[in-house]
Amino acid sequence: SQKIEQNSEALNIQEGKTATLTCNYTNYSPAYLQWYRQDPGRGPVFLLLIRENEKEKRKERLKVTFDTTLKQSLFHITASQPADSATYLCALFNAGKSTFGDGTTLTVKP
Amino acid sequence: NAGVTQTPKFRVLKTGQSMTLLCAQDMNHEYMYWYRQDPGMGLRLIHYSVGEGTTAKGEVPDGYNVSRLKKQNFLLGLESAAPSQTSVYFCASSYLTGEETQYFGPGTRLLVL
Question: Is A106 helix (H, G, I), strand (E, B) or coil?
């Protein structure tokens, strides 16, 4: 069966450092992969999309990589800030359906 | 634009009761989705719709029904609520599926006693 795994534990880093979140998948051939941010008590908010034929995507302090051979996506936040503290979800899409990972909770300490 | 709105924000039901959750979007999106999110877990797709008058099953459709009579509205019904349906329900919409951004509503917290 299809399976998506994100960092199994919460990630705590110091302000200014780079946060790296991992999304691994098995038994899946996604056409697209998206990353969302979710704050407590709120709905997810879209951050970035990367297609299967793209290796890397950037947006301001965010960078996403997509390795279909390793079946892995990495999500980087550079120069992290306390305001970046949230849960980050990866989502894979294929054949009209989406599958979300369980998310990784990031805490950036000042 | 209000984006995606959900009604109600919170509801408590007794086992066996029924209710309908309403999702509305004002972005003229074709696709709409209903997800549930349990504590510490990701979103699981319940049902989705690719256009007015059409619906399809997602990953966890049992115990739920949906209707899309108008393009801007997507209703999720629970015919006979069970404690296992205690969850936070999110609605989302997008122009297309997959490639396009999904815009999420604020969620409905449902407690079934």
Answer: strand
